[in-house]
Amino acid sequence: MERATVTADKNGYQPSAWHFAALIAGNAALALGPWLVRLADTGPVSAAFWRLVLALPLMALLAWRARGKAPLDWRLAALCLVAGAFFAIDLASWHIGIEQTRLANATLFGNSGSVILMVWGLVAARRAPSGREGAGVLAALVGAAILLGRSLEISTATFVGDLFCLAAGIFYAFYLLPAQTARATLNPWLVLVLVGLAASPLLLGMAVLAGEPILPGPAGWTPVLLLAFSSQIVGQGLLVFSLRHFPPLIIGMALLTQPALAGLVGWLAFGELLVPLDILGMALVGAALVLAKTPAKVGQVR
Q1: CA distance 289 to 253
Q2: 12 φ/ψ sector (left φ>0, alpha ψ -120 to 50, else beta)
Q3: Are the CB atoms for 188 and 121 separated by under 8 Å?
Q4: What is the overall mean pLDDT for the chain?
């Protein structure tokens, strides 16, 4: 087969039709995660444990095949383990929230780490936000307030679920900080393997302490196997393949396919209807996610 011709833009990105398809398919696979968490009868934290453990052998093989000749930087490996600890708390909180709120809300709030990282960067730089950054933070706050208010109208349980998913977004931001530093040097598959090795025992310990069922019940292994395959292998794998070929704005916009698909699944599978006010809140949070991933100047973020 003839190889596709790829033209780089002035910022060095080299997207092709395959990269774009992988970007969309990766986000679509990740959007199915909340639905599979609900189908699993292991308990939400236990499902997170199986999501990582079942995917580790294949991911380790991919990391071994992509290994370089340079020796492992143990400082960066330690950063991956720190990232894994935050990722464990992120997944535990997010999966608990998924059980209690609407799938679209869970997906939006669980991905709020981009906005939180933007705010963190402003605090660390000790500067006021630019117009774009201020608009992103304002949109996130107003959108989140609308969605939280709607959840409180429906049930206090969905409100608490939203709070768990918001907490997951915070921990996801703290996972990204060390993980991105390590990923700049180590191959992405190795980073995912080290993160999984650190997070898995923590998730298992949390599940045991919470008294959750660890092994699947009548539903069998299918939901957790599909969760591991779709979220860790297909979703993460396609994003590892595609993300470096796109500017942050495109990545942020592609990210919005996740809550859209999750909302569709929530409606079809669980009857989770969205009213116009819900859509407005989601649009505002979605706009904030896009603004958070958009560089202030063209080419500033690689």
Answers
A1: 8
A2: left
A3: no
A4: 84
